[in-house]
From TrEMBL:
Name this protein carries in UniProt: L-serine deaminase
Lineage: Eukaryota, Metazoa, Ecdysozoa, Arthropoda, Hexapoda
UniProt keyword annotations, A-Z: Lyase, Pyridoxal phosphate
Residue ranges of every copy of the Tryptophan synthase beta chain-like PALP domain listed in the record: 38-196
Cofactor(s) this protein cannot do without: pyridoxal 5'-phosphate
Gene Ontology molecular-function annotations: L-serine ammonia-lyase activity; threonine deaminase activity
PANTHER family recorded: ACT DOMAIN-CONTAINING PROTEIN, THREONINE DEHYDRATASE, MITOCHONDRIAL-RELATED
Coiled coil: none
InterPro entries noted in UniProt: Ser/Thr_Dehydratase, TrpB-like_PALP, TrpB-like_PALP_sf
Superkingdom classification of source: Eukaryota
Pfam families xrefs: PALP (PF00291)
Keyword Glycosyltransferase: no
Length: 307
């Protein structure tokens, strides 16, 4: 018998054991017309093989963070990881715009949550599954609620560093780490499950633009420049010298309340990283002390505004 066949048999035995564990928490699914339901214990047992593979291949893992929709993947991974390594921490991660599992845990039972447009669209379940919730309740180490800004930043992070195209739902676990929601895992081995790449080019483009904006790499600002041929030339030279990419430039003359020899230039530039953005901002203010920047401060959770 080959090595691969032995591994497959081992996974089948552990998956069946996982199925028996989930059956202890099973509740009947009434009026179900969909045979492939993520809340079905058989389907959950299949999901659980992911947890088995994680602990089998990385037994030193200290924690696993799982993206959450209706909860089937989280419940199955939780059972598998705790069964194979009881000290392994298991967290769930979901979008702050549709906190279905968090609301259910707070209420003590599944509750319906309004589904609103968000970057993690694949996690937008209006209510968690009965079986999944019964399995998770009292066993989950912690539930993490992730801000949209960090989901956008995580999409870019995975794209640039890992060369992977993942959707907002898929990177929710990584976004939770980037947001600093699990400081207790610093220096430990944590596994972030990237669960999906269902994103078209249009939505990916918008997500990237959002992520660049909230990280400060896409900067919008307004500066007062002399209203003559050299005014914009000096500004353009500064942008070129700082190796920033000019994305948009619109001048405003009609509603300017300063002297008639001045015009305001509303500009958007792209920088290479956050350090580059900070240096560009400092040099621009050296030349234009009255420059006003519009940025989203995600750490203080304040709305973006000119400052």
């Amino acid at each position: 018998m080959g090595k691969m066949e032995k591994v497959c048999k081992l996974l089948k035995r552990k998956a069946f054991s996982l199925f028996l564990d989930t059956m202890h928490c099973r509740r009947p699914i009434e009026n179900s017309t969909n045979s492939v339901c993520s809340d079905n214990p058989l389907v959950m047992a299949g999901f659980g093989t992911l947890g088995i593979e994680i602990i089998t291949q990385l037994p030193e893992a200290d924690a696993v963070i799982v993206p959450v929709a209706s909860g089937g993947l989280l419940a199955a991974t939780l059972v598998a990881c705790k069964k194979l390594k009881c000290t392994c921490l298991v967290y769930g991660a979901e979008s702050a715009k549709v906190p279905t599992m968090m609301k259910a845990l707070q209420a003590g039972h599944p509750v319906s949550v309004p589904v609103v447009p968000n970057l993690a669209q694949g996690l937008s379940a209006s209510i968690v599954g009965e079986n999944a919730f019964a399995t998770i309740k009292g066993r989950l180490d912690r539930m993490l609620v992730v801000d949209e800004a960090y989901i956008a930043k995580a999409v870019i992070n995975v794209l640039e560093r890992e060369r992977l195209v993942a959707d907002g739902a898929g990177v929710c676990a990584l976004a939770a780490v980037m947001q600093g929601l699990v400081p207790e895992l610093r220096g430990k081995r944590a596994v972030c499950i990237i669960s999906g790449g269902n994103i078209d080019s249009s939505r990916l483009s918008r997500t990237i633009q959002r992520g660049l904006g909230v990280s400060g790499r896409l900067m919008r600002f307004a500066v007062a420049v002399p209203d003559h041929s050299k005014g914009l030339e000096v500004l353009a030279k500064l942008i070129a010298d700082e190796k920033a990419v000019l994305k948009s430039l619109i001048t405003e003359q009609m509603w300017v309340h300063t002297d008639v020899g001045t015009t305001w230039a509303n500009i958007v530039v792209e920088t290479g990283n956050e350090e580059h953005a900070a240096n560009f901002k400092d040099h621009l203010r050296d030349l234009y002390p009255t420059a006003r920047f519009a940025m989203l401060d995600v750490d203080d959770k304040r709305k973006g505004g000119m400052r």
